[in-house]
Amino acid sequence: MLNIKCKIPEAWDAFDDLYWTVYQFDWFEKNGRLWAKKFFSDLNNPLINEMLKDAHLINPNDSRDSKFTEKYSKRFEQELYLPDEYIERVQRAELSLLAIEKCWYKVEELNKNWYFKICNEYFVIPHLYRAWSSYYFCDNGTGCVYLCNSEKRPEYLPHQTAVILHEILHLGIEELIVQKFNLCQEEKERLVDNLCMYVTDDNQDFKYAYKWSDCTTSPHQETTRDYAYMDALMGIQPETNLVKAVEKFVANRASN
Ligand SMILES: [Zn+2]
After folding, report:
1. Distance 69 CA to ligand 1 centre (A)
2. Which of 144, 229, 240, 246 is least enclosed, having the fewest CB within 10 Å?
3. What is the pLDDT of residues 218-242, one digit of tens each?
4. Is residue 207 part of a domain?
5. CB-based contact 108:118 (threshold 8 Å)
6. For residue 146, what pLDDT is reported?
C-alpha cells in the first residue's frame, strides 16, 4: 500500500530548501539550464536577489553551520515564510495522490519483479521558492518529493500528479539503476519518462508526464541525445527486468 502524506514545510525546511537552491544556482546557469535564472528574475524578490549575490557565504557541507544561514535564516522566516500560503497547495497535492494510488499496484509489481525501491513512507512538500521539483531520501529512508509550487512556473501547476509520480519513480531507481550504471541526467530523465508511461498506461491524468524529456518546457530540451536509441533498448514490457535492460543499454552505448 502506498504510504504517502503531504505536508507544509517548517520554516527551517523552507529556508533549507532555498539554501540549496541558491547553492545550485551557479551550476544550473553554467550548464545552460536558463529557466532557473528566468525563474528567479521573474520572482524578482529583493531578499532572494540579495541571497543569490551572497551564495559564496554558503557552506556546501552543512546548512546549519554557515555564514549564509547566520545572515539570512531569520530574515527569511520574517519576510518570506508564509505558512498560510501552503494550506491550499497541500490540499491540491493531496488530491493528486488519488490517481497515483490507482496505479500503485503496477509499481508494486516492479518492486516484486526487479526490486524497484518502495520507501516505507513518502512526504510531498510544496515549496514556493524553487524553480524545479526534485526528490530526496530523508531520514530513515523516507522518500521526500519537493514540489515546485510557484505561480512563476505556471506550467508545473496543472500537472502535479504527474510531477509527484515522476519524482517517486526517480527515488525507486536512483540507487538500483542510476547510480549503479552511472546514467547521465538525460538518460535518467528519459528512463523515468518511460517508466511513467508504463506505470500509468493511458491515464490522462499523467499525459503530460509521458515524455517529460521531450516537452518544450522541460529543462532537458537542450539535450541532443538520441532518445529513439534509448527508448528501443529500454522498451518496458510487463516482463522487462529494467535493471538488466539498462545494463544491456549501457554495454551497447559503450561499444557504439
Ligand atoms: Zn526528473
Report:
1. 28
2. 229
3. 444 444 456 666 776 667 888 889 9
4. no
5. yes
6. 94
The answer to whether residue 194 is domain-embedded is no
Residue 172 lies in a domain: yes
Report how far ligand 1's centroid is from the alpha carbon of 166 (Å).
Answer: 6
| Total domains in the fold of the chain | 1
The residue whose grid cell reads 509499481 is: 107
Please give the distance, rounded to the nearest whole angstrom, from the Cα atom of residue 150 to the centre of ligand 1: 18
- CA-CA-CA-CA dihedral for 6, 9, 13, 16, to nearest 10: 90
For residue 100, how far is its CA from the centre of ligand 1 (angstroms)? 17
4-6, strands of its sheet edge to edge:
4-6, 122-127, 143-148, 134-137
| Phi and psi, residue 124, nearest 5° | -110, 125
Distance (angstroms) between ligand 1 centre and the Cα of 163 equals 8
Distance 209 CA to ligand 1 centre (A): 10
Ligand 1 mean position to 187 CA, how many Å?
Answer: 10
Q: Is residue 210 part of a domain?
A: no
**Which chain residues have CB less than 5 Å from ligand 1, an ion?**
189
What range does the domain containing 160 cover? 1-182
| Residue 152 pLDDT level (bands cut at 50, 70, 90) | confident
